[in-house]
Each structure stands twice: as structure tokens, then as C-alpha cells.
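Quick entry between incubations.
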Amino acid sequence: MYYFSGEINFIKRKEVKQHGQELITWKRAWFVFRASPPETVWYKDGTSGRLHQDRGGRLRQGSWVKLSYLCRHMETQKPKPGPLLAAIDTPDDLKKLREEQLPLLATELRNFILDVVSVHPGHLGSSLGVIELSIALHYIFNTPYDRLIWDVGHQAYAHKILTGRRDVFHTNRQQNGISGFPARNESEYDTFGTGHASTSISAALGMAAASELKGETNRHHIAVIGDGAMTGGMAIEGLNNAGASHANLLIILNDNDIAIDKNTGAIKDYLAKISGEKQEKNRPSGNYPNGLKDNDMKEAFLRSSNLFEAFHFSYFGPIDGNDISQLLTTLREVKKIEGPKLLHIITTKGKGFEEAEKKQTLFHAPGRFDRKTGALIAEDPENRITYQEVYGRTLLELAEKDEKIVAITPAMPSGSALGFMINKFPERVFDVGIAEQHAVTFSAGLATAGYVPFCTIYSTFLQRAYDQVIHDVALQRLPVVFGIDRAGLVGADGPTHHGVFDLAFLNSIPNMVVAAPINEVELRQLMFTASQYKEGPFAIRYPRGYGFMKASEWQQPFEKLEIGKGKMLKAGEKAALVCLGQPGNFALEAARQLEKENIFPAVFDLRFLKPWDETLLHHIFIKYNRIITLEDGVVRGGLGTSLAAFASLHGYHNKIENLGIPDKFIEHGSKSQLYKICNLDVESIKNAVRKLILP
Ligand SMILES: Cc1ncc(C[n+]2csc(CCOP(=O)(O)OP(=O)(O)O)c2C)c(N)n1
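Done. Structure below.
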């Protein structure tokens, strides 16, 4: 059985020829090769080929892939675990190790994670920081009977490797591979699916309440939550609820003093204070174990925290969370204590890899990097620029012209490229913590006072703030600009992070403008247009990563766009491709390629879902008998079903096909793989047009 899976880098431009004919040229190709041949090989330009396996199990040349070239790279893909780790398939195997062996196991785990993540990109620093904790928890507790929940879940790699996924860990975040986050359908050890922050306390409390109802008094429920996630509203709601209960709940506060970027807010300051100051030794109250032995442990147990005790939690710590023996001793004692309790541990994000410790933000999710030096291996952008950078740079330009422009981010300043504005106008950028609901209402407050807030939130996290968008912004027609980052399919982060619902959920809110740029210039023009719009909220959703234009082309002079106006991108006949946002580029390419088959679909870009261009829509329905809609969002409630409703309302009987995200959750994989699954890739669009047009 082969488990090859990963990425090949072609250092030089390479041409593969067959029968003297050039079939494909690339600089870089991705491949996925798993169990049963033949498997599809995907290339960056969206084309695919096939690999074959001969009877002896050796790969041989497929129709046009140069095998010797591929094999050389593929054989390096599967990492080898150290001897202790190689023997651990479940936590029962872990428990067979002696305590003295655990630090060595931690080293092996660290090396293994680094070997894999340096080649198959994923989250890194957070997992490196909790390796000792992961070992200690599975060593002391009886998982999966005892419930362990990882908040956000991006730090759960060691947990995954220790719970049966070592041999598939190198498939992490790839299509058909394991998820980058805990997922209930992947393992019984993943008791709760995570990806979004601050949910672990509520989920663990719910499980603890269920155990109480069932009389399972010996069952433990453990939520591991970072200092960043602890600032989220849900975490505080969970604390509030749990503190008034008798739940057998242990919260482990993993305090590494950083979120993705610098952590912000008063809780952060408070944690720093209680971590640093000499604590008073006489705790006023609490139910403490008697068997405390060494001085360190006594210290840990005798400390106090006003904040968590105000929530009726027994507070322990802070202790060194990268010290296995301290963790083991403390967890053994804490385990004996009933009711809600919180253990505060201090860890180092990126622990054990120098570059990751030094550059913690960069190594949160670094992409590919040199395993030895930590040097990042830059993606080859082919002289392109990301939408995020266009957004960040444009926002700065706008802010330079208008002092009322401010930016808001819920803990994602780097991800959303707000650094440009932070450098120049730090006082006009508000990082409000992992607090999307608050971010939206806070923006609404700024708007009431005449400011022009660019509330910049990833599409997937805006889901959290739906009521705030409706109640605090749209209902009051407050001119908040929503910069909806990473809209559409995001790729390897998978279903917890795909930004595919925003079109549908914003579409139904009155007073909203909802726009999606087809390219980088249009993003810029929409931002300019939105900055001058005073009638209510204006949402601009743009995709993750590189766009379609050359890096030198995006910075066009500002131009105000007519709100609600779409445009024709390509004239045609019989069929019309009606697009919203970046899928317009795929539609254009499909239409160009179809010309060779004498099929000439027209291509339209609506640009605005709301208000949309009714005049243009009537024109399309009258002129083109067959219509295909394309959107990088769920069809239900988005462009697709809205257009069908429009047809029905106006008595049109055109044949309509809707391409977009179907009514199911889309797994992780590369963006091009996922587009294909959703029939949004060029080939699928061509097929849809052929099917609709040909008799
Ligand atoms: C609701 C939500 N908002 C934003 C994010 C993006 N995000 C992922 S990890 C992270 C930082 C988490 O910090 P912390 O809890 O301290 O964990 P650490 O990475 O430091 O281990 C953020 C903001 C998210 N996952 N969910």
C-alpha cells in the first residue's frame, strides 16, 4: 500500500513531450498518490494526468509523467518516527513507557512533526508548544473515555499522532488525508470537532452535564484552551455557566502569551500579572489534595487567581507546561479534585525549534520550510500579489486620504494584511481579540460617530457575528464596511474554514450591499466605493491567496463603481455564464476554450449580489435561453437559487444550471481539487455548458 502524498517542486521549468508534441510545461506540480492506482496527478495550472503502478508495485511511467523525476521526489515524502514513537499506536502503548522515557518521546514527537510539517504545510508553533501536555494528558487520563477537547484544534498534532494517526500524519490537510483539526468522524479520541476558537469550555461542560445525568461520576472532561481563545466571548460564557455547576470539568489554560499575533486585551495583561508576580501563599478557600510533596507543587496549589475564583473555579498554577514531570505530578493531583477547576500552564509557542520560538507569528502556520535552518520556502507567486496584500495596501492608501477611516480586526492583523496600516497609523487599527461579535458591534459604534470602519473578518468567522450584522449594523443602516477575507473555498484548512456561507447569509439581510470583486483591481475599486458609501453596510468578499493579475497591474487609480451594476465580460450566443466574483475568471477561460468547439457562451459578472443588476438580468434572460450561474459560495440562498427565484418571479422559463458549493460540507484539499469537486473548475464549467447547449 502506498501512502505517498504531497508536493513536488520543480526547480526549473520543465517540458514533457510525447511523440514530439509538447503536452505541458510547468514550474511546479502537486501530486497526490494513494492506495489504489491509477491515481490522478494534479498540476498547478489545473490540468491533470495519471500515474500507473505495475504488478511489482513499482511506479512506472504514466502516459506523460516522467516517472524517474517524480519518484526521486516521492520517496522522500514519508517520515520515520523515532523508536519510542514507532511503538505507540494508542495511549495504552504510551502508558507502557516509564516516566523517564517521556522527555525522549517528546523529542521524537517534535522531530516527527517538524519532518512532516516542513514538507506538508500546516500549523506548527502551537503543536510544538503542547507536546509535553499532549503526552501528559494521555498518560494520566483514560482517553477516550475521559473526554479531551482541544480549543481551535490547530495544536492537536501530537494528540493525533499519539492516538493512532502517526502513519497517516503526512497526509495532514491533503485531499483524502487526515484533517488539520480534531474531527469526530476521524477518531474516537477527537471527542469534539473544532477549528473556530473558544468553544471548548461549552462543549466540555455539555459533556460533563451529560455524564452527570448518566451517573458517570468517574468520567473526566478536559478542555485545553489557549490564552488567545480564552479572550473569546464564548469562553467567558462557558466559564460563567460552568462555575455555577458541579461539573467534573478541568480547564487547562495553555498560556503562551501569544495568539497568532500579539495577544491583546485586559485578560492578557491579567494572565501576565498572575504568571509573574509572587503569589501569596494562603489561599482563602478551596478543596485541596493533601498529598502534596515537593515545593513546586505546593506553590502551584497554593496560588490564587481572583478572576477564575470569581467564576468559582479552583485555580492551580501557573506551572511550566513544557516540563513533563511537573505536568504529571500536577495532573495526578488535580484529577482527584471534584468540580470545575482550572490549571494554568505556561508554555512556549514553537518550543524546541529555534526559528519557531523566535518568529512565533510566522511559524504559527509557516508553509513549507527548511527543516534544518527554518528558512521559509517561498511560494512561487509568478509575479502575483495576494488579495490580502491588495486589501492591506489599499486600505492604507484610503486611510492616508481620509482620516476617518479606521480598521478593526478580531485577532487577525497579519492574516488580513493590516500591518501596512498598523505601521503608519497604529492608533487607527483596533485588534479587539478573538471576538467577532464584539468586532462588529464595536465597528457599529465607531460608525455612529462618523468614522468609516473597515471591519475586516474572515468569512468563516463572520458567521459568529450574524446577529450583530443584522441588529447592530444593518437595521440601523450604519455605514460599516465589511472586508470579508478568505471568502470561498480556502483549501487545506477544510470545512471549518471554508468561507462559503457569507453570500447566502448576507443576501437575506435588508439594507446590505454585497459585492465580490473578480480581480485585484476590482477589490481596490470596491474598497474605494465602499469608503464613500453612507447609506448602510457594504460587504466586500474576496478570496484567499493570489489573484489573477500581475503584481504590477493592481494599483490602478481609484474609480468609483456604480453600486448594483454588473457587466458583460464576453459576448456570446445561446448560453450565458452568470458569475459573481472570482469564478468569473474560470468562466472566461472555459468560454475561451469552448470557442475551439464552436461553442460561444457569453460571460457576465454581476459583481454585486445585492442590490443586483435587474436590467442586466432581464437582458440575459431575454437573450440567452440557457443560463449557468457560478459562485464560490453555497448555491442555496446565494446567487444560484436567487436567480432561479428571479426567473420564476418574472415568468422566465430559461434552462438554468447552478454551479457553486453544493448542499454539503466540503472537506480539505487543495483549492483546485475542491473547485473540481464543486464543478467550479474550467473543465467542469465546459462540461456544464456542453451539456446545456448540445441536444
Ligand atoms: C472564532 C475564531 N476566530 C479566529 C480564529 C483564528 N485563530 C486561529 S488560532 C488563533 C489564535 C489562538 O491563540 P491561542 O488560543 O492563544 O492559541 P495558540 O495558537 O497560542 O496556541 C486565532 C485567532 C479562529 N480559529 N476562530
